[in-house]
């Protein structure tokens, strides 16, 4: 695995690129192996270069160094860097792209450059960690300049990277990155990046003599010179249409936002939102008219480009909010226009509705899931008549069962998946009979991803049902064994191993749970060191879910009285700095609430009530962030119930416990009124009576009853 650092600065003025400067602005610096250069080493390079030009100041800012002396100094710095195997990297704004303002433009250039850099490094390394350290940037507000915050950039960079990966249909599972800002005034490594950027920016100017200009050409290698091509702009969409790239053009329209480039390149005039909407509408109509000229099979091919890019956003990057916005744009804007021009592509419409359904189930949005379930059923019969659509139909049936898990209808999931498994098994059994003279085409055992998904979905239903019917846990274990046999893809197997870890944890087989969790990150040792496991989980593509399972084992072990194991796991948690790496930047979506909840459980059992309440509260806040995410809210009720039950165990917290009990009852009453799903109402049917009866009990009995209620959901 390759571990790299990318040190970056910028040169030029992104704000002025649009008005026709002769040299485009750029982001650049050097790429090196992680930890291969410290501040002292960087200072040594600068000091040695100053020996040839003593008048160069200690704190290097290339723009302030005038005349030919800069060229002498810069060449010496660049040569030393290259001699130490540092790669000089340039992300250039060659098309003089401007996206709203310099900050957004900078993020665009940076994200496009990083994706291209990853692709270059992937030729040698399959798995990579990249730490990007960039010089602080300033923003002007009300005539006051302030540093742009690290978190602000990380969020915007994450969004842009996901769109860039999706645009190329790339998976970033093994390409991990982190981003931080630092000051060039106190870190000599960023002074080196300043020299790299400014030297390339001014390579044709009078700071360099002719010989030095030739040297620069040789020092900067083409492999690490990247251009951020213009994307999501009216001009590029028009260019794609001219080249017949209809699917690509439609995708670019969909991801274009009003904050994307909205500039007339000829007049240099920024287009207003109204003008942009009008331009987009005319472009969409033009795209659809071009699509209409194609035969049906070609229309399907171009529309599949859009669906594949959107699937990448949902399945690989799990950016449900971004995907939901784009999918709604397809549903509200694109599909009606397709139908207006008599393009009735049921496969495309079904795919879009299925993706909205998928995104809604991931978010626990029950009302939207119900709506999309009915939308998809309108197209189901026609699609089911075609063999080619059979896999898509079965995917829908599996997704329907995921929705049923969200609404706590576990028994119905088992019934549906039983039927679907029988259908798949019967179909697979027919192949050897139908092709008895061509048996060489088929092995004795045919693997099936869809069969694995069916078994994986059923085992989850059995897992959740096991708290009501304990015998289901062994049936879930058997489903797990069968599901694992079906998959070949590494990410699918990893997910199944984590499901198995969850099953073993529920059955209080904590060592087995740790073993299966280790297997999900390629640890095959019989005895797994928790710290090593955590380190591997933190590097994995699905690290949040891995950490979730680890935190559950830690919490459940503590709850069941296995304190020694729980303490050992928590000790490793602290050593691996998990709370800082994961929880510090928590988001309002699954599985952060589970991680925080389970950490709170462990801390409460371990006697750190203050820290436990803090974690519980964060988890509860996540669950109640979105009113429409009813499944999350139901989890929030359970977390609040568990916290309150523990508070009633401590005399000094009785007052707080009673306050939390009132909050719990209020939240439950609001929740149950807003739930339309009969199965959810049935699942929580006993809560109303139980919560009301709790008021008259002793504090000890309140604690016991609340804790029992908190165990109804096995997350």
TrEMBL record:
Official protein name in the record: DUF3800 domain-containing protein
